[in-house]
Specification:
The protein is an alpha+beta fold. It has one domain: Hypothetical Protein Aq_1857, Chain: A (Sandwich), CATH 2.60.300.12. Helix content is 22%, strand content 44%. It has a six-stranded mixed sheet with strand order 4-5-2-3-9-8. A three-stranded mixed sheet has the order 1-6-7. The longest helix has 14 residues. The chain is globular, with a radius of gyration of 13 Å.
Length: 114
Amino acid sequence: MTDTSIVREIALSPSAAARVAAIAERQQKPAILRLSVEGGGCSGFQYRFGLADTVDADDSIAETDGVKLVVDSISLDLVRGAEVDFVESLGGAAFRVTNPNAASGCGCGTSFAV
C-alpha cells in the first residue's frame, strides 16, 4: 500500500534502495529498511537502521524500486522530510540521513540535535 501523502514524509534514494535490496537478498529477508531514532550519540539523538520482517500498523512508509523504508510514529517526528541515501566515498560506505529537522550533527554522521 503506497499512499502519496505518507511517502512525502520520508524518502529513500534509489542508491539506498539498491543497497537494501542487495542486503535483504543475501540475508533472505524482505526488502524493508527500518529507520528509528534513539536518545544518545554525541549530539543527543542517533539514527538506527535495521532490516525489518514486517511493517507495523503505526509505520510511515516510503517505497523506491520495490524497497520500503519504514519509520515508527515517534521517530517520524524527528525525521519528517528526511531522505535516506547510501553513499560510497574514500572514507567508506554508509547510509546517510539528510534531515531538515537536525539543528546540528556530529562528524560520525549518525547522531544529531534538534
